[in-house]
Amino acid sequence: MRVTMKMFYQRFLSSLNRNMGGVLKDHEQIASGKRINRPSDDPVAESRVLSYSRDVSRIEEYKRSIDTATSYLTAIDSALQEATDIVVRARELAMQGASDTVDAEGRKILAAEVEKLIEGAADLAGTKVGDRYVFSGFSSRSAPLDPETGEVVTDGGVVRIRISERIDVEVNVPAGEIFSLSRNFPSDPPEGVLPSYNWDGGGTIPIPDADPVSALYTDPGGFTADTDTFSPSGGTLTVRSSPDDPAPAVVAIPAGATLADVRDALNSTGKVRAHIVDFSDGGTPDLRLVVSSTTVGNSGRIEIDVSSSDPAGTGLQLLTRQSTGSGNLNLAEQVKNYNYVTDPANPGYYGFNNGALNGENLLRALSFLKESLQSDDRGRISKAIDYLSRVQEKIARVQAKVGANLSIVEREKEVLEGREFDLKTFISQDRDADIASVVAEMQQRQTALEGLRTVSSRLFTLSLFDFLR
Question: What DSSP state is assigned to residue 299?
Answer without folding.
Answer: G
